[in-house]
Amino acid sequence: MDGLALYAFAYLAAAVFTVIVSQRLGLGTVVGYIAAGVLIGPVLHVSTSGSAYLEQFSEFGIVMMLFLIGLEIDPQMVWKLRAKLLGLGGLQVSATIAVVTLVCVAIGFSWQQSLLFGFVAALSSTAIVLQTLEEKGMLDSDGGRASFAVLLFQDLAVIPMLACIPLIAGAGGEAQAGHGSSLLAGLPGWASALLTLAAVAVVVIAGQYLSRPMFRLIALLKLREIFTAMALLVVVAIALLMSAVGLSPALGAFLGGVVLANSEYKHELQNDVEPFKGLLLGLFFMTIGAKIDLAILRDNWLVIVAATLALMAIKTAVLLPLAWLFRVRNTAGWLFALGLAQAGEFGFVLLSIGWERGLMTEQAASVAVLVITLGMILTPALFALSDRIAILLDARKEEAEADQPTEGNIIIAGVGRFGQIVNRMLLANGYKTVVLDYRADVVDGIRLFGIKSFFGDASRPDLLASAGLAKADLIVVAIDDRDHAADIVRHARQLNPDIRIIARAYDRLHHYELAEAGADHIVRELFGSSVEAAGLALQALGMHPYEVEKRKAIFVDEDVAALDRMAPLVDRSKRASENPGFVAGFTDIGRVIESAMRGERTGYEEIVQRGWSPPELGESHTIHSLLAKNPES
């Protein structure tokens, strides 16, 4: 027990420490797990006699990853992205495999090794790229959507790649790790084919007609822990069945996930399997890191750096023309090409299987692992390079078109569901606006109406400057990213102290953040529409429209007045629910509003300092319209 406890402590401590450090440095969790493996193996030499079993156990992380990918296959999403998924993704994978294979053959590798390296190079890091795009708020941009489609195709392409590795390994490619004998050994070809098809059919039929009744029974009995056990049982059973007939367990898990993708228990399965997948996948990457020989890194560092840079150059050269072909151009094209220029975590899986099948030596596999790892480490630098290129392209476009706004303009930062309504109303009343948005199709569409617009992240100071922020009279910050919104407000106030700033707030706490940044007027994005809906609900319940308007006004005035009263109670070091003063103040506001609704308006009058006044002309017109529709009210 002492030995097991020691190994468990070493692995867990190394993983926690290195993953936290890696995440804080922006390198992602995969690099952290590999670093943990290096720390355990080559540095501290922590090993166990059962390391072979540990590696086999860790491979269940790959099986579970493929199972979850299969669960994520949404036919509607795939159909919506079909052009970029099949066209852009298919061409990227095929072209990268072809180019890398030819280059590797030319420098002396066998065609089998070269094809394996082509498979590895064709894949990018789904975890790192998607996380970075989400952090930058660029996942819904043209480059972000194209990247997502290609990453999805790459994940799907792993399946045939896994199936091809044993074929290209040939007769001499028996697994070195010894995963057990296949039931097909010694059977004639036709019997092997029938047994393989029967195993696949069992997965499909059992997933469709057997697992669902079991999950339903467990759910009715409310056996939460047994539901988790059943989810794990499904994955392990599929892996065992596929291994028994000589197929890839990961391939079978993917198939099982696809079968259950439309199940009513899909989300519960995802929630149950995800933690085990994360830990086992982390263990798999740690075993990869533990195999790295630091002597190989020392003796081959020049080759590793050169191979990494060559890989990135090849992938960028393949991705840029394809991006242009599929109308992902300019800054979006560079974001797409540089963001996907590294190799990904599935490359470790393919290299591990390739080494087990005898396609390469352990030294070659170690060098290839280091190339993938270095590429992941350089990914943040690639995204920074794409930002720099975007700045240069915007500046060049600005000079070429001489498209500088004139004085007295209005800037709309973000024209989504919120910003487009503001923009339309301003245009309808004769004002000219300059629009900033990161969706190229939106920017191009707005330009067709003669409206000045710029593509890019509105929080970038250079983009705001090119839109004429220094001489603008008004900026409306309508983006839905709370952190970037505060950055825009802060920068606008610093660059142009006299500008009027109207900002969209996510919630009450975001309101305080924007006010501190320097916004003049702050609109909570759902507050007005929610009050309007509540008023309609009161009217539908029989309340007179005049009474509804009075109660809406009381509620709005008190809530707005309360924002200023609550500001000193905000403590950014703790959540609102954990701040007793903030909670008490919020409760007092509720009591005042409730008393005002009952006619006891003393507390309210002390705060608002004014009584009820009838709606103005526009509001009266609204009331008359409501009365015409509801005469019985």
Can you describe what's shown?
The chain is mainly α. Helix 26 runs antiparallel to helix 27. It contains 29 helices and 6 strands. Strands 3-2-1-4-5-6 form a 6-stranded parallel β-sheet, with helices on both faces. The N and C termini lie far apart (about 80 Å). The longest helix is centred in the N-terminal third of the chain and has 33 residues.
Could you give the topology of this structure?
Blueprint: H1 2-24, H2 28-43, H3 51-58, H4 60-71, H5 75-80, H6 82-106, H7 111-122, H8 126-136, H9 142-169, H10 189-221, H11 224-244, H12 249-259, H13 266-290, H14 294-299, H15 301-325, H16 330-339, H17 346-356, H18 362-377, H19 379-401, E1 410-413, H20 419-428, E2 433-437, H21 440-447, E3 452-455, H22 461-466, E4 474-477, H23 482-495, E5 500-505, H24 508-517, E6 521-524, H25 527-540, H26 545-566, H27 580-597, H28 602-608, H29 617-629
Parallel strand pairs: 1-2, 1-4, 2-3, 4-5, 5-6
Give a concise summary.
This protein is mainly alpha-helical and 633 residues long.
Mean pLDDT: 77
Shape, per Cα inertia axes: globular
Number of strands: 6
Distance between the termini: 78 Å
Query: What strand line-up does the widest sheet have?
Result: 3-2-1-4-5-6
Quaternary status: single chain
The biggest beta sheet is recorded as:
6 strands, parallel
Number of helices: 29
Low-confidence regions: 171-181, 402-408, 603-633
Strand content: under 5%
